[in-house]
Write a structure and sequence with these properties.
about 500 residues, 9 strands, Outer membrane efflux proteins (OEP), alpha+beta, five-stranded antiparallel beta sheet, two-stranded parallel ribbon
């Protein structure tokens, strides 16, 4: 048989097509990303970034500070409350008249006062309130754990979605190479006379459609990565590649998983803790029938001075003069009556420089040399006898809240049991689906190889070859979906349990 001059093109094309057909055989979902396309973000790194940057989680963590402050305040209610005061004042030197009588100094006056007081109230309600607040603080910690688990689930789900889309994009890129090879094969057959122009045009249409599919797949991958970074709480890095290496799912026993969920689920723990706090609130309401003790103590002091010291000195001099004049008159009367007198002592009365200095020194005590007032202590017992049934109302409200909290615990137990069981069944179904889809992929891969060979020898048309390639694409796409459905089902099971299971 004589070979045409351009038949070597046909041979090279056939070899290329067969080689490219083999390129679609490996598992696309397990292919490693190209190292030159950007940094690789692992699931572990994504979870760590989310814990540090996710705004919703940070808001949940802020609740810890509020709970701690409430716990400190409840503890402080059992401790004495202390208060201090320091003040100053100014009074104009003008008398105040009442019923024609003048009161007050005519000298401007500055004053300061200081005081300290302590008070302590002790009751059984305070003790029970503190225990209820402590239970609320513990429930807040469980809420934070639940928020962290929810974030872990959201990040894992979005990571798997983006990773699945990345695998689909890799599949579309591989199929793009295949359609290009099919186009070259159709063109080669046309050149050697064993094909038709219609086959070439159909191959061109298929290749064009595949280019669009590959472009859309890569774009969707970028979008899913953007969504992932949104959950992480960071600006998106579009060049990021995701690590497809995921740990295998362990073999689990349903009853053991249920036991773990009932024991460690943070939402269930939070409900149980709040139910305990509700019991403390009931006890606190009932404490209104028990007497309460109140203790208090206070201590204060003052100091003052006049702005014009000379006026005080003048008043002191006038006072001494008045005292001496009074003494002299008294002694003169005694002398006239023939009684013993001490007129010389009256003459000795005088305002000395020492008296003047004493006045000046007394004004120098302002503003911190205080004169202490009498201190006070008090203690009292209090027991309301009748307050319009408000105690009974508070007890009933607290009892209703306790019963509601018990119902919440029961609801959480039922929800966890149902969610864990459903997630476990879904995981088993997904694992079985993977095995079936892998078998379908092997069959479709064999059919595609056979179709390529038959088209090469002219036994089938380009339509049959395109159909075989489409069957392989659907089978591989379904297999990729099934692989990541297993990971999603396992993540859903972990979320239902409330903690990682690996």
């Amino acid at each position: 048989m004589k070979i045409p001059v351009n038949s070597h093109v046909f041979v090279r094309t056939v070899v290329l097509a067969l080689g490219l057909a083999g390129a679609v055989m490996p598992s696309v979902a397990s292919a490693q990303p190209a190292a030159s396309t950007g940094a690789i973000l692992t699931l572990t790194d994504a979870l760590a970034l989310a814990r540090r940057n996710n705004p919703d989680l940070q808001k949940s963590l802020n609740a810890r500070r509020t709970a701690a402050a409430n716990a400190r305040a409840a503890t402080g209610a059992l401790l004495p409350s202390l208060s201090t005061s320091f003040g100053g004042g100014y009074r104009e030197g003008r008398q105040t008249f009442f019923q024609g009588q003048g009161f007050g100094s005519t000298n401007d006056q500055l004053s300061t006062d200081v005081g300290a007081s302590a008070q302590m109230n002790f009751s059984m309600a305070s003790l029970n309130d503190r225990r209820a607040v402590k239970a609320s603080q513990e429930a807040t910690e469980f809420d934070i754990q639940a928020a962290e688990q929810a974030l872990r689930n959201n990040v894992t789900m979005q990571y798997l979605t983006a990773l699945q889309q990345q695998a689909r994009a890799q599949l579309q890129d591989t199929l793009l190479v295949t359609t290009e090879a099919q186009l070259q094969l159709a063109q080669a057959r046309l050149q050697v006379g064993s094909g038709t122009q219609l086959d070439v045009q159909r191959a061109e249409v298929t290749h064009g459609q595949q280019r669009v599919a590959a472009l859309n797949a890569r774009n969707q991958t970028a979008i899913e990565i953007v969504r992932l970074y949104q959950i992480l709480g960071m600006p998106a890095v579009l060049e990021t590649r995701l690590d497809p290496t995921l740990p295998p799912t362990p073999t689990l026993d349903l009853q053991q998983v249920l036991d773990n969920a009932r024991r460690d689920n943070p939402m269930l723990d939070a409900a149980r803790t709040r139910e305990s706090g509700a019991r403390r609130s009931v006890a606190s309401a009932r404490s209104a029938y028990i007497p309460s003790l109140s203790l208090s103590a206070s201590l204060s002091g003052f100091t003052n001075r006049y702005t014009n010291t000379d006026v005080l000195i003048q008043q002191g001099q006038a006072g001494v003069l008045s005292q001496r004049s009074s003494c002299i008159r008294s002694e003169e009367v005694r002398a006239k009556l023939g009684l013993d007198n001490n007129l010389g002592a009256c003459q000795a009365l005088a305002f000395s420089p020492a008296d003047e200095q004493a006045i000046r020194d007394s004004q120098g005590k302002y503003p911190f040399d205080f004169t202490r007032n009498p201190y006070s202590l008090s203690a009292s017992f209090s027991l309301p006898i009748f307050n319009g049934f408000r105690r009974e109302q508070q007890i009933e409200q607290a009892s209703v809240q306790q019963r509601n909290a018990q119902h919440d615990v029961r609801l959480q137990e039922l929800r966890i049991s149902a969610d864990v069981t459903a997630a476990y069944l879904q995981l088993n179904n997904a694992q079985q689906t993977v095995a079936l889809q892998e078998e379908n992929v092997r069959t479709a891969r064999t059919a595609l190889s056979l179709a390529q060979e038959r088209y090469r020898v002219g036994a089938i048309s380009i339509v049959d070859l395109v159909q075989a390639r489409g069957d392989y694409e659907r089978a591989e796409t379904d297999r990729i979906t099934a692989v990541y459905d297993v990971q999603r089902a396992f993540a859903a099971l972990e979320n239902a349990v409330g903690r990682p299971l690996r």
